[in-house]
Amino acid sequence: MEVAERLEKTDWARVGVQLVGYAAYLARSYRWGASPTDTIALGMAAEDVASLAIRKVWTGERCWAPERQPDLLLFLKGVVRSEMGHLYRRSAAQHEIRPPTGPDGAESEERLAIRSADTTESADPEVELIRNEERAHETRRIQELRDAVHDKPELAMIIDAIGRGCGERPRHLAAELSVSVSEINNRLKRLRRVALRVGTGVSAS
Amino acid sequence: MSENRSSMNDLELAKRLGRAFAETEPDEELDAAAELRSVGLDPDEVAERMKRVAIRAKRSARNAEIRARLQGWIDDLIDGIGDRLMPVPAAAVLRGGASGQAQQADSRLEEAVALLGNGVYDEAKERLDALIAEHGEQELYLWLLAHAELGRDENERARELLGAIRGDLEPRARKLLTELD
Fold first, then answer.
1. What is the CA radius of gyration of chain A?
2. Whole-number mean pLDDT of chain A?
């Protein structure tokens, strides 16, 4: 059966709901880490990105090869993940200039010092005021998260590792903490659940 | 854990944590409907909208495919039409009178073909509509107009026109209809 025929026979209502649900899951993760002034929105971002993925697969811009991935929904989820990442990076780039990371995704102490200096100086008092509010907001949230995992050292270790500049990819964290990637994935999922509970001011928006 | 506090500010740490959370895959049994409701979306409405997105995407993909092949069809059309341009006025002249009108029709027909060749489909359609209004639905006009409509992404209209073609051009019209399917 040709790709077009398979796409034709797809139950798009069902696949669409699954896909937007998946995009919403990813958006909630990114949104938790976004500052209050970031423009990335939850509902619309999720639906827009899912729609974009569907369009790209139909037009062939994202080439689905059923012989390599027979499950269309899984393929579409991969497209959504990639597009969501682009969207997030574009949104984040409006707020900061990210210094390059090393080959392992980590930042050097020197880079972190430069970043710290970059984010603490501003000639514009209004910008400085917004930054101060953002900092206060994030400090509160991070503290709430730390408090929530104070009796779960395996989760606190993740926060600390990322705070020390370790790359946020599971394989980076696994290497840093000397545990398996699947263990890191489990911990990240648990930490995410805790974070979404404590970060109510953001996660519920 | 406070003895092991991070060396980056909390703003940056939150961003990185967000990215780390996004690295995780949801559980297999992710309740998509619940996820949608949690961000204020109604699953039934999302289902309807996604169906429409797929229909529009399909149409758009089909149009793009047709556009990509259209120039080839128009080149074939122009190659095969040269001998059909002159007989119109010639026949009109032989029938006697109205040679001015026939020549005018021929010049508009040539213009329409040139416009099609240059991808100016809206104006080609205008010329052909005017010719059909004056001279009736001749197979050549319908054949040309179908190509103009394809260029305007009016694929259904093009199909109707191709289906209405009778005479020498009918086999080619049927072949093009098959290709459009």
1. 19
2. 80
Which chain A residues touch B42 with a CB distance below 8 Å? none
Compare CB distances from A24 to B5, B20, B39 and report the shortest one's residue: B39
**Selected residue with higher pLDDT from A4 and A35:** A4
As a whole number of angstroms, the distance between CA A181 and CA A184 comes to 5
Mean pLDDT of all residues in A161-172: 92
CA-based nearest residue in chain A for residue B7:
A164
Question: To probe the interface with A, which of B2, B15, B55 has the most A CB atoms within 10 Å?
Answer: B15
Per-residue pLDDT of B148-164, as tens digits, reads 999 998 989 999 999 99
Query: Does residue A165 have a pLDDT over 60?
Result: yes
Of A34, A109, A164, the CB nearest to B18: A34
Contact B50, A21 (CB under 8 A): no
Interface residue of A5, A42, A168 to substitute, partner B, most B CBs within 10 Å: A168
Q: Where are the alpha helices (DSSP H) in A121-164?
A: 125-148, 153-163
Query: What is the rounded CA–CA span in Å between residue A28 and residue A83?
Result: 15
pLDDT at B107: 79
- Tens digit of each residue's pLDDT (9 = 90 or more) over B32-55: 999 899 888 899 999 999 999 999
Among the partner residues B32, B39, B53, nearest to A54 by beta-carbon distance: B53
Residue A151: Cβ within 10 Å count: 8
Distance, in Å, from the CA atom of B119 to the CA atom of B117, rounded to the nearest integer, reads 6
Please indicate whether, in this complex, the C-beta atoms of B41 and A47 are within 8 angstroms of each other: yes
Separation in Å, CA of B121 to nearest CA in chain A: 23
- Tell me how far apart the alpha carbons of residues B64 and B51 are, in angstroms, rounded to a whole number: 20
Please report the pLDDT score of residue B85 as a whole number: 62
How far apart CA A167 and CA B18 sit, in angstroms, is 12
- Residue that the structure tokens 């990210």 belong to: A98
Q: Are B11 and A138 in contact (CB under 8 A)?
A: yes
Taking the CA of residue A132 and the nearest CA in chain B, the distance in Å comes to 10
Q: Grade residue B62 by pLDDT with cuts at 50, 70 and 90.
A: confident
Give the per-residue pLDDT at A12.
96
